[in-house]
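look at this record:
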Amino acid sequence: MNSRTLRRRLKACGTSFQVVADQERFEIARHLLEDTNLNLTQIAAALDHADPGSFTRSFRRWTGSTPSAWRSRHAASPPATAGREID
């Protein structure tokens, strides 16, 4: 698809490529922060940010929170039965 056509169709839907790209980057960042032990440098690289600071600024814009604070609040918790015996 031609880029002009894509921009026109996205505009008709009330959005833009930048908005869609940011939404997808946030979803990937959220997954990597919640479900992996990757450090911020690795996550920034996976999302094609120049450095962790750039990623942190973007993440704060998306959520109002730093990636580290987000991870602390949203990290996957162990299953409810972890550490307990099941009869």
In short: Helices lie at 3-12, 17-35, 40-46, 52-63, 67-74. Residues 79-87 have pLDDT under 50 and may be disordered. Residues 2 and 46 are 26 Å apart (CA to CA). The radius of gyration is 17 Å.
